[in-house]
Design a protein that fits this description.
- Four copies of one chain form a homotetramer.
- Chain A is α+β, with helices and mostly antiparallel strands.
- Chain A folds into two domains: 239 residues, Glutamine Phosphoribosylpyrophosphate, subunit 1, domain 1 (4-Layer Sandwich), CATH 3.60.20; 172 residues, Rossmann fold, CATH 3.40.50.
- Chain A has 18 helices and 28 strands.
- In chain A, the strands form eight sheets. Chain A has a seven-stranded antiparallel sheet. In chain A, strands 8-9-10-11-15-16 form a six-stranded antiparallel sheet, with helices on one face.
- In chain A, helix 9 crosses helix 10.
- The first copy, chain A, is globular.
- The interface between A and B is large, with 43 and 43 residues.
Amino acid sequence: MTDASVRPEDWHAHPFDDDKLREECGVFGVVGAGEAAPLVALGLHALQHRGQEAGGIVVHDPQAGFNSVRRFGYVRDTFTSQDVMDRLPGGVGIGHVRYSTTGSKGQTAIRDVQPFFGEFAMGGAAVAHNGNITNADALRKDLIGRGSIFQSSSDSECIIHLMARSMGPNIPERMKDALRRVEGAFSIVAMTRTKLIGCRDPLGVRPLVLGRIGDGYALASETCALDIIGAEFLREIEPGEMVVITEAGEIASHRPFEQRRPRFCIFEHVYFSRPDSILGGRSVYETREAIGKELAKEAPVEADLVCPVPDSGTPAAIGYSLQSGIPYGMGIIRNQYVGRTFIEPTEQIRNMGVRLKLNVNRALIRGKRVVLVDDSVVRGTTSRKIKEMILDAGAEEVHFRIASPPTAWPCFYGVDTPQREKLLAATMSADEMREHLGVDSLKFITLDGLYRAVGEARGRDPNAPQYCDACFSGAYPVAPSDQIAKGFEVAAE
Amino acid sequence: MTDASVRPEDWHAHPFDDDKLREECGVFGVVGAGEAAPLVALGLHALQHRGQEAGGIVVHDPQAGFNSVRRFGYVRDTFTSQDVMDRLPGGVGIGHVRYSTTGSKGQTAIRDVQPFFGEFAMGGAAVAHNGNITNADALRKDLIGRGSIFQSSSDSECIIHLMARSMGPNIPERMKDALRRVEGAFSIVAMTRTKLIGCRDPLGVRPLVLGRIGDGYALASETCALDIIGAEFLREIEPGEMVVITEAGEIASHRPFEQRRPRFCIFEHVYFSRPDSILGGRSVYETREAIGKELAKEAPVEADLVCPVPDSGTPAAIGYSLQSGIPYGMGIIRNQYVGRTFIEPTEQIRNMGVRLKLNVNRALIRGKRVVLVDDSVVRGTTSRKIKEMILDAGAEEVHFRIASPPTAWPCFYGVDTPQREKLLAATMSADEMREHLGVDSLKFITLDGLYRAVGEARGRDPNAPQYCDACFSGAYPVAPSDQIAKGFEVAAE
Amino acid sequence: MTDASVRPEDWHAHPFDDDKLREECGVFGVVGAGEAAPLVALGLHALQHRGQEAGGIVVHDPQAGFNSVRRFGYVRDTFTSQDVMDRLPGGVGIGHVRYSTTGSKGQTAIRDVQPFFGEFAMGGAAVAHNGNITNADALRKDLIGRGSIFQSSSDSECIIHLMARSMGPNIPERMKDALRRVEGAFSIVAMTRTKLIGCRDPLGVRPLVLGRIGDGYALASETCALDIIGAEFLREIEPGEMVVITEAGEIASHRPFEQRRPRFCIFEHVYFSRPDSILGGRSVYETREAIGKELAKEAPVEADLVCPVPDSGTPAAIGYSLQSGIPYGMGIIRNQYVGRTFIEPTEQIRNMGVRLKLNVNRALIRGKRVVLVDDSVVRGTTSRKIKEMILDAGAEEVHFRIASPPTAWPCFYGVDTPQREKLLAATMSADEMREHLGVDSLKFITLDGLYRAVGEARGRDPNAPQYCDACFSGAYPVAPSDQIAKGFEVAAE
Amino acid sequence: MTDASVRPEDWHAHPFDDDKLREECGVFGVVGAGEAAPLVALGLHALQHRGQEAGGIVVHDPQAGFNSVRRFGYVRDTFTSQDVMDRLPGGVGIGHVRYSTTGSKGQTAIRDVQPFFGEFAMGGAAVAHNGNITNADALRKDLIGRGSIFQSSSDSECIIHLMARSMGPNIPERMKDALRRVEGAFSIVAMTRTKLIGCRDPLGVRPLVLGRIGDGYALASETCALDIIGAEFLREIEPGEMVVITEAGEIASHRPFEQRRPRFCIFEHVYFSRPDSILGGRSVYETREAIGKELAKEAPVEADLVCPVPDSGTPAAIGYSLQSGIPYGMGIIRNQYVGRTFIEPTEQIRNMGVRLKLNVNRALIRGKRVVLVDDSVVRGTTSRKIKEMILDAGAEEVHFRIASPPTAWPCFYGVDTPQREKLLAATMSADEMREHLGVDSLKFITLDGLYRAVGEARGRDPNAPQYCDACFSGAYPVAPSDQIAKGFEVAAE
């Protein structure tokens, strides 16, 4: 059922730039550090890049019980007021930001906004999920057949229903039961009345980190969310690990799953994570600079200016400039008053597209041979427009350098990707792409180059890839069974 | 869990007059008469007196599937716009208006607003319920223990979960299964993708009527909701009957329950139903006029003016005047811009109480002996204030005549009543009440007198009462088992 | 200029019944009685029947200066919250409710909502005006030519500009200067930093009363607004009088205008004023009952039931019943959840018209000869629909009795009337009207009968009418000069 | 008077970073290029950095007349919907974005939002003003004394009142009359029913440019607003010039003022203007890069990393890096989901201050000697916090390099500056500032260095400065007479 009642009338945001892959979620939780809600709100604000459409917070207080607020819009607009904080008392809390999948039936309803909550015989539990359950359709069908009533269209809701039906004696045990039936990628932050729980799937596809704040602990998708609340980054939750943290500050580590070789998402390094977050002991910014350097080695060109496509191409462009010696300059300026959405734009304004966000620094570009560095090419629509803007401004030559290999396969592990046929690299060769974009040259970093930049000195191990790189290689570490049932053809790993 | 997110910030209505019993719900449904949503909205508007806090509509369309809108506030403000109607396409639809129970933990969340919806293996179903399930706590506990996740704090949600777990082959059969496990009072309007369903509990405590509109049918709590859409009143759904109506206009009548002697709520005649509705073949207005006449016979008084407490006391006052020959006059004027609520009033305004709603027609009252006719006395707080207003205006004498017997017991069948100790008649004798209110005389109609006025020429049959009159007599036709488990002591029937 | 920015998006109210004359304004002010704003809000709530579209309050506090809040919607929804009261500190305050003229260019903008405010060299002043300035167009043109900038489309704004340009030494003197240039009808409540001012035009067309509350004073359009705040009604402000009241409770009475014979609006008795207000020493309710009696004498009929068109026809119907001996009954029931507006109704709902508001009490009407008593016939559209509803319900005969003479002329003194050609009585004889409405008989009270009912024992003095009755007689006591300039033809008085 | 009614309840934005000077306005207008409103909205979006609090658009259409919409919030949220565009028909239009002065009486009311509009005898005119009128208090007092009624607290409103009182035969002539009485800085875009007017004060303190779009013309504060609508940049409006542009595309240039030597605001180069705008024939980005290079020459230091304070310090940091050879790196990451405001933040969140916006890239900073390049130091509060973040992250040394001279004097020409005593440089020597900030070194570019960077090869001419640099030098080219009347002491020029 579509519940059209609770979406605010004035909130029909339009993603003005749909030519990016989108991380669908960020999760955060805290316990033992005083009032939870303001810390969760700050954490979610720092994770806003992982989901801009809506957010939710659940807290528990011994007197007031469980309380939640779920809202469309940015955290800074929806979760910062005293009024909202007053409704969210308690010392245990979790939160979630989400970006809805586009192209589906319609818009997210407030019912789809996590965390999901269930009241069990032994008390309530709330669950926030980053990732995607690849057998959700099958699980949902089975659960409905047995009398469960789903409230949302979200795959993540399966988890709470599986927990409700588990015979486990307590909530962590019920969560183990539930997650053992789930396939796909998940980094979960959950809570009971007194405990904070974190869990990553056996492959560890999505990130999840642990930090200490005062006498308490926080769990977050990225370290930048620990920084904002002044928490100390302790370690990553390990692939296949579940931690259960009490209000008193005791952490128990469980291993509910059979052990597997990890396959962390390599695209987190390329684009999803914030440049100031730390992944694998190095800042994402440095990794992206290293990608730029690697790219300069693999795909040099004679030029006058290295110019990033802002903001995501910036670190790689700096790296390319450092390696090549070609001066770095901001030939494209981003309007800082554009978020990722426009509210109900007119047709005319929608058609402005990238001009709403970017403007060329004409005086700087004119007469120059320009190396444009971008993080990825998805549909190629934005790349074409940027090329035109650059040429209109009088550039002599335009050379695209892309900080990732061609994106040729959809992601089924929690990233919003277009259907395969919409991916430029799925239907064109590198040369066709260059011609399609109309640029003087177009080079992608190689898969091996990317592995080297993220620290794998010998590149990708083709027999046992160190990362999940399915979007580049088609090598899906977990078979996307719902998709296969619908006819999707996976390339052999 | 309390979901504080979806209640509109500016909607903290305050019931400015809590000295009335409140019907908690009105239900409406339509099939086979063209677009359902506008008809449902009109029907709910006509039933607004049965629930002012919130309303909801669910419709189904073969293309658009199930859609719902649920809103706080009056139907005329929330369901009349083209924008809302556009979100609710389809030819089958049901709706619900509700008044939340006061005194409970807090305010209704949008999650508590009916109709409730469940997606089953054979398709979705929506259910709107008027009444109260007296074993809801026990059912909920059992369902949670078996893995159902409740989304609201409403007793009515049990029905949809029981249906979800039924093994019945279709939705009407599942509803029978569910309702056989439910105790209490229910008049239900439900829908599947193509069918409209109506059902009344075996005692028929709450009303439910069937009407014809064009080639289709409508179900409604009262006939006034048929009038507004131009539907012809066919008959009442009988106690213990379930009707299943197809889009093609076929009606099947089922009898899922063991047959019992009906016990319709006698207070529907006194106060809940609208005066222009027809109950038992007679307009409620005429019945109330008859109550006034009966009261004039039972409790005559010498006086100069018969004056109603507007608006609910008006028909009985007219009856009293006709019978007694004392002139009828509007000594109290109601401000027509008061609904049943004020939006977020200040303390000072809240304290104005009844003055916000009523003003005395001083010139008319001065120097007169006044018979004040009201429908009932609940807490007595309003009665005292009205008496003071009348005396301040210079009345010589004030005689209260009440169109119902003393309200001494709470209702557990879908009416919001204060706890027993708050009911004036539960703690005081008639004489103590008169003294407490400070009036020259105070008379209630007798239970037998009331039965005569509603058409039972020989009054109440004490061995087999023809109506549910538990609020007056304490004779509960269905044992309120949840309440008994919490310690409530029922008088022996 | 039309300022489309400040009208709330969701406030496009539709007057669901435009077949009534509408008072356009109510005014209220208070000084010396503690915090002014809550008292003004209550007073405006009691005057809501005089203007439902929007309201405004201005207060002054020595520290906080002048503050104002202006809002669309009912007072009970817009001025009752602590939040709004907190923005309105101070011991002097005035307020205004307004009903916009229909059929004009469009909707009221918030800029048109009074009180109007001006900052003068000697301090600020705010003015709230009930009535209409008949030379406003000419004044506006002159003021613009001399450099005044108008902020609204309201005729009342002229007053504050004339005050701004006066050379008077203080605000009351400037107001006298201004009002001597103004033609038409005005009952004004105004304020300076420390004083409350009330003034009526020389004819006293619109009402204005003075009350005492504690050590302070209140001014209001009607006495019902004094009742709600517990103020004692002292006297009417006299036609042509200006009172200036200080915070210390001193009242000075001025006579700024040449004296004329008063011409109070007789329609205030018929319809505009609330039945519990006192006009000329008698309650409006009693006057209306007297009109009904007079009508029963003038236009008797054999019938079984006297039935009011609710709510405005009720007192006259009671009077008709008392005089004629025909039983009184509520054959038409008003839905109490209809105010005077619907929010953005769909076409279909708009077409429901009177059915949204009224329903026939079929059981009561069936087979009866019914006398329907209404206050007036304007366009006749509603009357026709009511007649149809009554006949559909099975009435044998329908006799319309109207508590005012035929309305044949527009009002230019602060009442929203349709153009002359839309008034049924302007284009049809009494018999044509009867035929047009399709009723068995149609009788209006005579002008003399109406004068008798309001207390003029010898009826109307044709040489010096005691009231303004221009809407019935076409005898305009003030020449409507702007209208005449536009071609309106006045009947000779 | 403070009008508290029309500010949206939920719009109490908090400027989370008040340690910057703020341009107070951006203006835009278009004629002859089709529907004006969408172009004005786009232009204002591109100028959003010049005013984030509120915006307004006025248009004129022969049928619909003048229409306006004024709103709080970002253009992208308030002026992009079809609904708003539909209310703004017409081919001539102007718009304004504003940032309110902080520390003043309170928050902007919607009445203060420009454009201002006046209806004159010859038709209406709307005016949007960037700059500040330094004799506004005196003008207002005089106008009030003569009967003008002000609607806002804005200095700019004087212009429209002076125009209303002018005896000039048409609107451009009236504007000349008005502006000749005005002292201070103004770049004005105005409109009549058919004409677009642009005007700059004789010193040309604020920017204003002319562009061609199709057969029509646009006026804008900066060229970036021409770029977004695809207009071609023609030229700057000259200091002291007024242009009047007809719908037919005829441009007339007037010189209403005595000619003076221009004094363009040098801070527009440093901070206010967008880096992709063109000032004096060069992109602002290049000028800022040149400032960085100049700074590297004037204030070299041995270090490992040049790091900008994002985003405004970025181009100067790139210049410093290029000149010095020290590698450039993004040691501080800006959260792109922070605009310049937070909605109603809690105390706790407000106290987070800069951490809401900036996070240190710890891995990059650790162990390095860092040159931090910022555009200016105002109060120094942010600079201290950034220094602390950098040291916490493990930097060895912190060297601040500032791309402007010490800001020691308030601006009275349309920039929001703190009172003089709040300016760090007004009360401390360079060395005291270094100590106060706690950094290893602190160097500002010299005034001569800044002049060289903006293209004055021989630096500042002390006898006839080429720019307005009052904020650095205290040399005010127009005496701020209102301020002097209040006691402000100007340094001798």
